[in-house]
Automatic annotation (TrEMBL):
GO biological process, one term: negative regulation of transcription elongation by RNA polymerase II
Name of the protein in its database record: Negative elongation factor C/D
Origin species: Ciona savignyi (Pacific transparent sea squirt)
Gene Ontology molecular functions: RNA binding
Database matches in PANTHER family: NEGATIVE ELONGATION FACTOR C_D (PTHR12144:SF0), NEGATIVE ELONGATION FACTOR D (PTHR12144)
Length: 595
């Protein structure tokens, strides 16, 4: 028995001596536990002093000395600190050993105090994020990510795959991301935040399913439910673009499992990204029956896009004339029919509940606008896909304007216009100052606020096209016509996106100054008539599209353009009695400009 104890003591001594023989071991956090074990088995203090002093290289102290020298040479303390920390980060990334990292918890049995101190600094948190991406199976890093989330920094870890494997952390990150997107409230913020959010959600099938289930529940809320559904659809679109087939999840959350035939038809067409007469015929039969499936099944954005492309452009599936009415009916049904779900409870004579129909089993289906919508789609389909020339289309301009008031038709016309004007030869054949197709864009902008961003995207693409086959002066006139459309878009409320793009063109200095000047001139000279309102002398009320009060964001974005002498110099008078000078004076008087 005594020999066993002596052997064990000898092993502990040998282990401690080996540890103390390592370089700069006196700086290690485990030094105290090592000394305790060594002395408990009869270790000699003189040996400790010898080992620790002989192996002391003072690396940390040397770094501190060098840092002090750098500061004495004129570098700022913060600059020196960043230099040292960045080098240390590089070393850690290069030499990190996940197995050794995991022993930290097994040896100490609790969270090291230095780890809690590290996660209080953003630079070290960023280090942990990078390591977690590279070593997703490291227990120490997984625990650290949870510590970071517990400390309230979950907004930083949206791109960390490790967070997606821990439900508690993922739920916090999901909640924070959704709150950020909802609070921003703007289309620009939505587009800015969605890609990173969608990347996190689509990390794995279980994270995608969990997120979509949560958002499906939230989407039922009247306050913000539609925005949540939009976010859900954007994530579905992102997943599709990355090659993931998530149609079955989307349909299941929309209740498609109760309608297997409709589900099978929709999944078949979406999986192939192509409509076919057989499945369309089955859906048409189902939706013309007395008890049709829910309209939500038809309202999948990618599914609707297939119908719009087929009916309004040549990109989609070519439609057999015998089946055309079925395609039109299904698109019109998806666009115009509304459903109101309600709960039914049946009582007997003793007022005892005898039967309950769950919510969703009973619906009021409103088809009041179905016929008119179908007719509008049919008329415009005949006009845009019938091979009619511009003169024939001009004679039907009234019909087009009337039908464009239907959102689904406006979407289809926008797709058609985009396809037509994207043809490099289109503008070579135009004789009018403003071609018909651009006039149709103006009408879409006037009728549908939700299509403003799509129209602006098309106009930007047109503005940036080279048109190398056209004469230089013709190119400039064409681009001015496109800018006029942007001014009209601005007059209908799409202000900041348009101004932001023009500011971007100005800052890049890759746009002809005369074009920027034309835009500014049109903004200050343009005005709009308020339909239905007249003054005392029965004249239409006309308002300038730009007049005080201005928002701070607008001033900070637009004023640098206006102050540019090369752009607005020719628009100003020497006495300052002009709209441009008035705008500059007003802004400088009422706003503090930060350069």
């Amino acid at each position: 028995m005594d020999s066993n104890i002596e052997d064990e003591a000898a092993l502990i001594k040998s282990s401690c001596i080996t540890e103390m023989s390592s370089k700069d071991y006196i700086m290690e956090p485990s030094i105290f536990s090592c000394l305790k074990r060594y002395f408990q088995v009869g270790g000699m203090p003189e040996k400790v002093v010898e080992l620790l002093s002989e192996n002391y290289s003072a690396v940390a102290q040397t770094i501190n000395l060098l840092a002090e020298w750098l500061i004495m040479c004129g570098l700022a303390p913060t600059e020196v600190q960043d230099l040292v920390e960045d080098h240390l980060k590089d070393l850690l990334l290069k030499h990190f050993d996940p197995k050794k990292a995991d022993t930290i918890f097994t040896d100490e049995g609790e969270t090291p105090s230095w780890l809690e101190s590290m996660i209080a600094h953003q630079k070290w948190r960023q280090l942990f994020y990078k390591l977690a991406e590279e070593y997703p199976d490291c227990l120490m890093l997984n625990f650290t990510i949870k510590l970071i989330s517990d400390a309230g920094y979950q907004a930083e870890i949206t791109n960390v795959s490790t967070a997606c494997t821990q439900l508690e952390v993922f739920s916090r990150v999901l909640r924070t991301c959704l709150a950020t997107i909802l609070e921003s409230g703007t289309e620009e913020a939505l587009k800015r935040n969605i890609p990173e959010f969608a990347k996190m959600v689509c990390h794995a099938e279980h994270t995608y399913l969990y997120t979509q289930v949560v958002m499906a529940i939230l989407a039922q809320n009247k306050n913000g439910g539609t925005v949540i559904r939009r976010i859900s659809q954007e994530i579905e679109k992102y997943a599709k673009q990355k090659g993931h087939d998530v149609t079955h999840i989307t349909l299941a959350l929309d209740g498609a499992t109760s309608h297997p035939r409709a589900q099978q038809c929709i999944m078949s067409m979406l999986s192939k990204s192509q409509l076919n007469p057989g499945d369309v015929t089955i859906l048409h039969k189902l939706y013309t029956s007395d008890d049709p499936p829910p309209v939500n099944l038809l309202r999948l954005p990618l599914f609707l896009e297939l119908f719009v492309d087929s009916l309004f452009t040549s990109k989609g599936t070519k439609i057999n004339p015998d089946h055309k009415h079925k395609y039109i009916f299904l698109l019109a049904y998806a666009a115009s029919v509304t459903e109101q779900r309600y709960r039914v409870e049946v009582y007997n004579k003793e007022t005892t509940l005898t039967h309950h129909y769950p919510q969703g089993d009973r619906r009021n289906i409103n088809c009041d606008e179905l016929q008119q919508t179908s007719q509008a789609i049919d008329k415009v389909h005949h006009l845009v896909c019938g091979g009619k020339g511009q003169l024939e289309l001009m004679s039907e301009i009234g019909t087009l304007y009337h039908c464009i008031r239907y959102p689904v038709v406006a979407t289809g016309v926008l797709k058609w216009v985009e396809q037509i004007v994207s043809d490099s030869t289109y503008f070579e054949k135009q004789m009018d100052h403003t071609p018909l197709h651009l006039l149709l864009l103006d009408e879409i902008v006037s009728c549908h606020v939700l299509l403003h961003q799509e129209v602006l995207k098309l106009l930007i693409n047109l503005f940036e096209l080279a048109f190398s086959d056209l004469d230089t002066l013709v190119q400039l006139e064409l681009k001015k016509t496109v800018l006029d459309r942007m001014v009209h878009l601005m007059s209908r409320g799409c202000v900041m996106p348009v101004i932001s793009y023009i500011r971007e063109c100005t800052d890049k200095e890759d746009t002809d100054v005369s074009l920027i000047r034309h835009f500014v001139t049109e903004v200050f000279d343009c005005n709009i008539s308020i339909v239905g309102l007249t003054s005392v002398d029965h004249q239409p009320i006309v308002l300038d599209i730009i007049c005080p009060p201005y928002t701070s964001d607008f001033v900070h974005m637009f004023l640098p353009i206006i102050e540019n002498e090369s752009i607005t110099g020719s628009l100003r008078n020497e006495d300052g009695n002009d709209a441009v000078s008035d705008f500059i004076v007003h802004c400088k008087t009422n706003f503090i400009m930060v350069t």
